[in-house]
Amino acid sequence: xxxxxxxxxxxxxxxxxxxxxxxxxxxxxxxxxxxxxxxxxxxxxxxxxxxxxxxxxxxxxxxxxxxxxxxxxxxxxxxxxxxxxxxxxxxxxxxxxxxxxxxxxxxxxxxxxxxxxxxxxxxxxxxxxxxxxxxxxxxxxxxxxxxxxxxxxxxxxxxxxxxxxxxxxxxxxxxxxxxxxxxxxxxxxxxxxxxxxxxxxxxxxxxxxxxxxxxxxxxxxxxxxxxxxxxxxxxxxxxxxxxxxxxxxxxxxxxxxxxxxxxxxxxxxxxxxxxxxxxxxxxxxxxxxxxxxxxxxxxxxxxxxxxxxxxxxxxxxxxxxxxxxxxxxxxxxxxxxxxxxxxxxxxxxxxxxxxxxxxxxxxxxxxxxxxxxxxxxxxxxxxxxxxxxxxxxxxxxxxxxxxxxxxxxxxxxxxxxxxxxxxxxxxx
Length: 428
Ligand code: GDP
Ligand code: IMO
Ligand code: MG
Known about the structure:
Layout: E1 3-8, H1 16-24, E2 29-32, E3 41-45, E4 48-52, E5 65-68, E6 73-74, H2 76-88, E7 97-99, E8 103-104, H3 107-120, H4 132-140, H5 153-174, H6 182-197, E9 200-201, H7 203-212, E10 217-220, H8 244-251, E11 260-266, E12 269-271, H9 284-293, E13 305-307, E14 309-310, H10 311-321, E15 325-329, E16 339-348, E17 351-353, H11 360-365, E18 367-374, H12 391-404, E19 408-412, E20 420-422
Parallel strand pairs: 1-10, 1-11, 2-5, 2-10, 5-7, 6-8, 7-9, 11-15, 14-16, 15-19
Antiparallel strand pairs: 3-4, 12-13, 16-17, 16-18, 19-20
Helix pairs in contact: 3-4, 5-6
The protein binds guanosine-5'-diphosphate, 6-O-phosphoryl inosine monophosphate (IMO) and magnesium ion.
């Protein structure tokens, strides 16, 4: 068996890192297929807390081979510092594999990300400033630099010069920024080459062979469905495809090989950066969710915007990803509310709509239609089975499941690996 995709069903930060780590002990490969170090995945193992940005969360499971697929954008400096940070904490990272076809985030792409945001002013996206968008833009523009280019100095220089020909004009003439010198970029990039070389592999071949041999391969998404460049709240999105199809292109594995797609779904909703968010709260409830849920960005340290659960979004995630299961996280955070509002539909221009509006203006105007569900006050962090949850917590989960279109197969009741209620196995 199986190849599984595990992805964010909302706007990111659903708890993907914890979910991946939880499965890490039973899987052979954990593969990042898109995004880069814009991700911030927190994994808590015992009393140790790890914040991973670029590396797959499976790196913390000794039996598991972590893979950075071709669809990822790699900042070489971040890759090496994340590896050495883990090594210093005693984590063995020697099994890591990196696709030679993955694109590199260059220093000038980080510059372009930052100056573009500055120039957008009020209309900015609120990116993480890690160079993600400009690197994917270069990839699509066919002026990107790939991991394999690090190992051929003359090709690297030619490609960096080609990329900078145009970019320097824009930087200097539009953004009033000093031009970037190709030779300096090449020198910096070459400085990373020797340390990265040993990890580079034909990951597509390795992963397909692994699946054919019956190994368990887990594709770990960064970001989330609503941040997808095709299916998200464009232009307030990231520049890649976190949705399930992205696992195929971003790892070189056909859709026929994937058996299961698990959506990680927070029991409420959060978002970082700009863009529409129908259930966003601006009152004490929002403050309380942020405080109790510890909703502060792992990558940028920004406060996350918080709101109630949105079943319209969950249904949409089920649809565009073909979800087979949900992993509901952070149920414990909702403990203590007498009643919990859940958004079951939207009202758009006086009409009730059950599905995510196709038209962006409709979505921007959508008002949540709430149903009130009874809350619970008992501590649920020690619950190990569904039956151990208070009746109202059980009813909350069942109601969400019914509205969202796929079974909830696991429930997070705390950040730790063992603070999880497993209802159905993901590995059958
Ligand atoms: P990711 O980007 O999807 O991996 O999620 P983040 O790590 O950015 O944010 C999720 C946060 O919630 C992290 O601090 C996790 O440790 C924490 N977390 C995950 N699952 C649970 C849970 O079930 N309950 C609680 N209280 N915290 C959780
Ligand atoms: P994880 O994997 C939440 C958001 C940014 C911004 C938009 C574009 O931890 O869930 P980018 O730098 O990607 O060009 O920024 O996407 N964003 C995230 N929000 N979690 C993330 O990752 C995110 N990665 C990017 O805040 O709104
Ligand atoms: Mg995160």
